[in-house]
Amino acid sequence: MAKTIEEKQYLVRYKADKKSHLTILNQEECAKCEGQVCTLFCPGEVYKWEGDRMFVGYEGCHECGSCRIGCPSDNIKWEYPLGGHGIVFRLA
């Protein structure tokens, strides 16, 4: 039986560091971006546009790297979390 994306995401756990491994380099670039596309293609819904700022909920990052290649302004600095932190997969 095929699983929905929500069911698959339920299998993912995170061990978040206290410091983000994702950085918005320039908030003004995000403000100029039409549609803030990172809020659409990030499977972890890490990026949220609120008011006039982009907020990053790095704790739910799937570490897929789509944000670093999908940002039209190359405005997101993506690094791996420090060792022992980040995404933890559970088997079904």
Number of separate domains:
1
> Low-confidence segments, ≥5 residues, pLDDT <50?
none
Mean pLDDT: 85
- Proper CATH architecture: 2-Layer Sandwich
Give the N-to-C terminal Cα separation. Answer: 13 Å
User: The CATH topology, please?
Assistant: Alpha-Beta Plaits
Order of helices and strands: HEEHHEEHEE
The shape is globular
* DSSP E strands, number: 6
Strand content: 15-25%
With helices defined by DSSP (H or I, 4 residues minimum), what is the helix count?
Answer: 4
Approximate helicity band: 10-25%
- Give the radius of gyration: 14 Å
Please outline the major beta sheet: 2 strands, antiparallel
Question: What structural class do you assign from the helix and strand content?
Answer: alpha+beta
Question: Strand order of the main beta sheet, please?
Answer: 1-6
How would you characterize this protein structure?
With 92 residues, the chain is of the alpha+beta class. It has one domain: 2-Layer Sandwich (Alpha-Beta Plaits). Helices cover 23% and strands 24% of the residues. The protein is built from four helices and six strands. Strands 1-6 form a two-stranded antiparallel sheet. The two termini are 13 Å apart. The model has no long low-confidence stretch (mean pLDDT 85).
Summarize the structure.
The protein has helices spanning 5-10, 27-32, 38-41, 66-70; strands at 12-15, 22-24, 47-50, 53-56, 76-78, 86-89. It is α+β, with helices and mostly antiparallel strands. Helix content is 23%, strand content 24%.
